[in-house]
Structure formats: C-alpha cells, structure tokens
C-alpha cells in the first residue's frame, strides 16, 4: 500500500495496527489514503481490535488541500463523500477501533479521530477545524463530533472559534484519555478490547452505531442480548452461575 501501512502487533496479533503513512504531508488524507483505509477495514473482521495512528509529527492534518485544489467540483464531491463513508464505516465496524493522536488532529484528522470508538491523545496535541476561516466547510464527520462533544461545542469548533490542546479535547469529550504516550496507552486498551468475546464486542458497536430513544433503544438492546445468549461464551456463563 502507498499511503498507509498495516501490521499485527508483535505481542498481541489480535490487534491490527494501521499507520497513516504520509509524514512529509502531515498524513493529509489523499484519495489513495482514504481508499486504502476503506479496503483494509473491509478485510479486518478477523482482528480483535484496530488501532489507527499517524507516522511522523502528528496524527492527521485533514484533507490534502493540494489534491482538492486540482480536482473538479465533481471530483471534490466524490472525494468528500468517500471520506464520509470512511468515518461511517469506522463507526459501524464490528471491531473496536482506537485512535492514538499525537501532534495534531486538524480538519478531517479531527473528524476521523472522532469517528473512532476510543481516542487517546497527548496533552499538547493541537485539535481544530480550520475549514470555515479559510473559506471552506467541514464536509464530513460533524455527526461524530456532535455525538462526542454535543451540538453547541461542535458548532463552535465548526466555526473555527476553538483551537484545543489534547487536554481541552479530552475535557470536551473528543478524546477519551490523555497520555504522554498515546500509542502505548491505546495499545494497552486495544489488548483489553481484543480479549473480549467477539460477538458481544460487536453487539456494543452495533448498539452505539445509531441513535435511538427510550423504548426503541431498550428493544434494540434486548435483541442484541438475546443474540448474545446464543453464543458459547454465554452458555459457559449460564453454566457457571446456574450451578450455584
């Protein structure tokens, strides 16, 4: 692959590590990078957990503006739609997806991280959505930002009012944890998640992939519970506690 690299963790091969590998371009999202990420995710159902991070000085600086500048209007529309599909595929993927953010998560880098299930950031990382101040608009991923931070804070970010440190991103809800070594911290969490029974871990992903309210939320959770009850892990659990 050209713009990303992948490997299994040497200590826990259940963990698939995906590296955004365009360090000279601050890991800006090219069309190739987005297509490669989608392809890897499609074939990653055998992983226990997936860890996404960036090579070089930071996580991701958003869309490759040089590439966008050379596209037609139709090309830009297609690229941004593909990027949005990537975020939705991450949110809907049956395996836990973690992001380790160092240096910066800017523009599409912020929305890409926000789409992940668990986000670990270094305290000094720069988080921002600079599109509107430079005459553009965050074309995808704002739903994930809103789900994490809430609509009022997401709106401030979208206007470009707030540039956040990693600590501030954690306080806002964009990140789940702050660590001086976000990759190591995310890897440790990935190992814990990879050890979970796969059907049950996937049920958590499915439940939180869509917004439901009240009775509908409980009904959906009940369906997932009944499906989980049919697994070998649940049978072992019932056997253990039923014998007491």
Which key phrases capture this entry?
alpha/beta; two-stranded parallel sheet; six-stranded mixed sheet; 2-enoyl-CoA Hydratase, Chain A, domain 1
Q: How do the strands of the widest beta sheet line up side by side?
A: 1-2-3-4-6-8
Q: Unreliable runs, pLDDT <50, ≥5 residues? A: none
The Rg value, from CA coordinates, equals 19 Å
General shape: globular
Q: Indicate the CATH architecture of the largest domain.
A: Alpha-Beta Complex
Helix content: 40-55%
Main sheet characteristics: 6 strands, mixed
The CATH homologous superfamily of the largest domain is termed 2-enoyl-CoA Hydratase, Chain A, domain 1
Strand tally is 8
The tally of domains stands at: 2
Helical/strand content category: alpha/beta
- The amount of beta strand, in percent, is 5-15%
> Can you identify the CATH class of the largest domain?
Alpha Beta
Instruction: Give me the number of helical elements.
Output: 11
The span between the termini is: 54 Å
Order of helices and strands: EEHEHHEEHEEHHHEHHHH
pLDDT averaged over residues: 92
Quick summary:
The chain has 244 residues and is an alpha/beta fold. It is 48% helix and 14% strand.
Describe the structure.
The chain is of the alpha/beta class. About 50% of the residues lie in helices and about 15% in strands. It contains eleven helices and eight strands. The chain has helices at about 30-40, 65-70, 75-90, 110-115, 140-150, 150-160, 165-170, 180-195, 200-210, 215-230, 230-240, and strands spanning about 5-10, 15-20, 50-55, 95-100, 105, 120, 125-130, 175-180. The strands form two sheets. A six-stranded mixed beta sheet has the order 1-2-3-4-6-8, sandwiched between helices. The chain has a two-stranded parallel sheet with strand order 5-7. β2, α1 (about 30-40) and β3 form a beta-alpha-beta unit. α1 (about 30-40) packs parallel to α3 (about 75-90). The radius of gyration is 19 Å and the shape is globular.
